[in-house]
TrEMBL record:
Belongs to the GMC oxidoreductase family. InterPro entries: FAD/NAD-bd_sf (IPR036188), GMC_OxRtase_C (IPR007867), P2Ox-like (IPR051473). The lineage of its organism: Bacteria, Pseudomonadati, Pseudomonadota, Alphaproteobacteria, Hyphomicrobiales. This is GMC family oxidoreductase. One of its GO terms (molecular function) is oxidoreductase activity, acting on CH-OH group of donors. Residues 408-535 form the Glucose-methanol-choline oxidoreductase C-terminal domain. Transmembrane segments: none annotated. The keyword Phosphoprotein does not apply.
């Protein structure tokens, strides 16, 4: 059931109360219902974005140019950030769970297999086909295994999870969704548990307290952290105290382009376009350094893939790319084509010569029209949803995009300010930092990749700046904010983390967190699918605990 208010809700909910109806919250609710556990899903927004409600997440930045705007990083509405994410679904790698002293200051309290066994169900919940993340290229092999070219990334067939799960959210007697229900306070009991939560509409009306038996925060990394920091203000020793791990080790990914690549193999060139895999969704191959290469060379986990040239620069003289730029430059339409964070990275703040783009389009109108038509058909008419744009060219020359691990750093953090939102909840200040060592790793990965391309004869690499400027070039592009990893670390003890291996708070027995914020490392993968897999794992744990308690009471 989806309700627009709190009418008819009792003073206490004995099932699992979930705060935040984004990708993880919806997935957790659906999985708990499948396991016969009643769920109350609280969402601060409605079915559509409301500027006043969205403004509740405004934050301050120590360095604004290193973090995405909060209108991109947070979405206060049903479906959360799945309303405008890129829908990329990638699994973590075994190396992300390995001890890497001197490279990554983090330790997982669980093994890779503890997460991996839930990825198949996570793929179902995200509607991204089967758990297939490798696709060899027929007829193309190499003895040099320093890098692989068969690693896949997948995309969800439906971008919005509230659409994917519309039927069960609307009809399940076990799921009670309450919109316009912002949680503004977590009440603590004397027994070391959460007693209740304060709920309010965005305008401050309808404020009330609701008793809870089990509380799970799934409000995204930043907003979940904000609620916990506000709770610690009332009880300063919670979550490791002021010097503890809560709000620290803030990570995203190090992304950008510092080089162009030319592929010598026609087979390899064709293999890196988006394609529908037999496992049930659009996929794309990436270049990834092997585990052995990463450990031997002391580099962070990184993926690389060819991309179209910068679309904002009309000097590419491509009618297709100029059409793409003109469409993306107009925000309301551009947001329908790509995720907003991606759109803003491609649409430069610098003034562009729109007339030159128009001339490019007019000079190749038939080709641009054919490509646009093909894109729209593949994007909107099939079961599988074309996630992006790749335009092969005769020269086989492309930009080389990197998506690299962001190493955990305790000084990369968020904290509460003295400012408050309209409901009285303190606002965040965000100081996301990118260590220069991470940029050095990106440059080293490129050097190793260039050597591999030469050894295999697969292609060549051409840097966009001299060697002495490459680290600075990576640092200049270091900006993120949509992945929100590490802020509520899972760990073996409360000195190193906020939640344990089962995502339960070390300090409050009935408080759990399911979010990318619990991940101790960022790896090269987008974190959403892993967060969903952990939500599946949590659902099983909560169901087992609930039924064990019921059995004990009955006995």
């Amino acid at each position: 059931m989806i309700n627009d208010d709190l009418d008819g809700l009792d003073d206490h909910f004995s099932g699992v109360c979930i705060v935040g109806a984004g990708p993880v919250g919806i997935s957790l609710a659906v999985e708990l219902a499948r396991l016969s556990v009643p769920v109350l899903l609280l969402e601060s927004g409605g079915k559509k974005r409301d500027p006043e409600i969205q403004a509740l997440s405004q934050a301050d930045f120590s360095k604004a140019d290193s973090h995405d705007d909060m209108t991109i990083a947070v979405a206060r509405m049903l479906g959360g950030t799945s309303n405008f994410w890129g829908a990329r679904c990638v699994i973590y790698d075994p190396v992300d769970f390995m001890p890497r002293p001197g490279l990554v200051d983090a330790k997982w309290p669980i093994e890779y297999q503890d997460v991996y066994k839930h990825y198949a169900r996570a793929c179902e919940l995200a509607d991204t086909g089967q758990l297939v993340y490798s696709a060899p290229i027929a007829g193309l092999e190499t003895d040099d295994k320093s890098f692989s070219f068969d690693s896949l990334e997948r995309w969800a067939n439906e971008q919005k999870l509230q659409v994917t799960h519309r039927k069960i959210l609307s009809e399940s007697p076990l799921i009670d969704v309450r919109l316009h229900s912002a949680v503004t306070d977590i009440g603590l009991g004397d027994d070391g548990k959460v007693r209740d939560v304060e709920i309010s509409r965005a305008d401050g009306s309808g404020k009330r307290r609701l008793g809870v038996s089990t509380l799970v925060l799934t409000a995204g990394g930043l907003e979940s952290t904000r609620l916990l920091l506000a709770t610690r203000r009332k009880s300063p020793d919670l979550f490791g105290g002021p010097d503890g791990p809560l709000g620290r080790y803030y990570m995203g990914h190090v992304i950008g382009e510092i080089a162009d690549m030319t592929l010598t193999s026609d087979r390899l060139d064709k293999a890196f376009d988006f394609f529908v895999h037999e496992s049930g969704s659009y996929v794309r191959r990436r270049f990834v350094p092997s585990v052995e290469t990463q450990l031997q060379e002391g580099i962070l986990n990184t993926s690389l893939w060819p991309v179209v040239p910068p679309v904002a620069d009309p000097r590419h003289q491509s009618s297709i790319l100029s059409l793409v730029y003109l469409v993306m430059a107009y925000g309301p339409v551009g947001r329908l084509i790509v995720a907003e964070a991606i759109r803003r990275r491609h649409v430069s703040d610098k003034p562009q010569d729109v007339l030159k783009h128009v001339r490019n389009v007019l000079s190749g109108m038939p080709e641009a029209a054919r490509h646009a038509s093909n894109f729209l058909i593949r994007r909107y008419t099939g079961k599988e949803r074309l996630p992006g744009l790749f335009v092969p060219n005769k020269s086989r020359r492309y930009g080389l995009s990197y998506h690299s691990e962001h190493s955990p750093d305790a000084s990369s953090r968020v904290w509460l300010t003295d400012k408050t939102d309209a409901l009285g909840l303190p606002r965040l200040e965000i100081d996301q930092r990118f260590p220069e060592a991470d940029a050095q790793s990106v440059v080293k990965v490129h050097d190793l990749f260039e050597k591999w391309l030469h050894t295999t004869g697969f292609g060549t690499l051409e840097y966009r700046m001299p060697r002495e400027d490459r680290v600075a070039g990576v640092m200049a592009q270091a900006r993120h904010g949509t992945h929100q990893i590490g802020l509520i670390r899972m760990a073996d003890n409360r000195r190193e983390g906020v939640v344990d291996a089962n995502l339960r708070s070390f300090d409050l027995d009935n408080l759990y967190v399911a979010s990318a914020a619990v991940l101790p490392t960022s790896g090269q993968a987008n974190p959403t699918l892993t967060a969903i897999a952990l939500a599946v794992r949590l659902a099983n744990h909560l169901a087992e605990s609930r039924f064990a308690t019921q059995a004990a009471v009955a006995a």
